[in-house]
Amino acid sequence: MNKKVIDLNCDLGESYGNAGPHLDQRIMPYISSCNIACGFHSGDPLTISKTIDAAMAHQLLLGAHPSYPDLQGFGRRYMEIQKSELRAILHYQISALRGMIRVKNAKLYHVKPHGALYNAAAKQDDIAEIIVDTIIEIDDNLVLYGLSGSRIADIAISKGLAFRHEVFADRLYEDDLQLRHRKYDGAVLDHAAALKQVEQIMADQSVTTISGTVRKITADTICLHSDTPDAIQLSRDIYELVRK
After folding, report:
1. Which pLDDT tens digit goes with each residue over 75-130?
2. Residue 241 contacts residue 27 (beta carbons within 8 Å)
3. d(C-alpha 61, C-alpha 55), whole Å
4. What is the DSSP letter of 176?
5. For 223, phi and psi rounded to 5 degrees?
6. Which ranges in the chain belong to alpha helices (H)?
7. Of 59, 62, 50, 40, whose CA–CA distance to 13 is shortest?
8. What pLDDT was estimated at residue 230?
C-alpha cells in the first residue's frame, strides 16, 4: 500500500511591514500550503503582497486566512455578530486576497478560517454554513481547510465543497477531538510531544486525547506554526518525518 501524501500548512503574513517576515521565510521550505492573514486579525496590504510573492517563489498553495475583526485579540476572541455582517466580512477578506493573488498571475487555492472563527465553525452549524456558502458564492472550486471531523467538515461535504481535514502537530486534543483552549496549561505541546503526535497520526490516523483515549482522526493536512518556541526546528523535523 502506498503511503499517504500529506499536506503541511502554515499560517503566514501575521505581522506588519517588516515586523516578522523572516519567520515566514524560514518555515516556507518545510510546508506545501500557506494561509495568508487578510488584515482583520493581523497583516496589512504590503505584508500580504510580500507574503504572496515569497509563497509563490516556494511554489506553495495559496490560501486565505479570514477572521473576526479582532486586531487587538489576534482573532482569538469569539464575537457575536449578525449573520449578514459575518458574510460581508468573509466576502471582503477572501475576495481581497483573491484579487491580490490574481494580479500576480497566481490562483487562490483554499480558505482556512482563523482562531475563534475556526473554532466556532467546528461546533456551530450556523457559522459553518455561512463560511461554506460564502466560499461557494466566491468560487465553488476553492478548497476549505477545517478541523478534522468537525461540523464544518460535514456541512462542506454535504454542499459539495472540497474539504481538507486538518490536524495539528503541536496542539492537545480534547476527548471530543476539539482543540484544548490555549488558556489552559498543556494546550500547546512541546517539541517531543508534537513529533510523537505526528508519528501517531501518520502511522495510525489517530491521536491520543487529554484523557489518554486513542481516537481515530482523518488527516489530509497538518498545521505547523512559525511563531511558537522552536518552531523552525520542529517544522523541519516534522517535514522530514512525514516524507520518510
Report:
1. 999 999 999 999 999 999 999 999 999 999 999 999 999 999 999 999 999 999 99
2. no
3. 8
4. T
5. -85, 130
6. 21-27, 45-57, 83-102, 115-123, 125-138, 151-158, 191-204, 231-242
7. 50
8. 81
Give the pLDDT confidence of 28-50 residue by residue, as tens digits.
999 999 999 999 999 999 999 99
Residue with cell 518552531: 231
Q: Quick one: CA dihedral 56, 131, 74, 198, positive or negative?
A: negative
Judge contact between 145 and 214, C-beta under 8 A: no
Burial 189-218 (b: 16+ CB within 10 A, else e): bebeebbebbeebbeeeebebeeeeeeebe
The domains of the chain, with CATH numbers, are 7-172+219-242 (3.20.20.370)
Give the number of residues written for the chain: 244
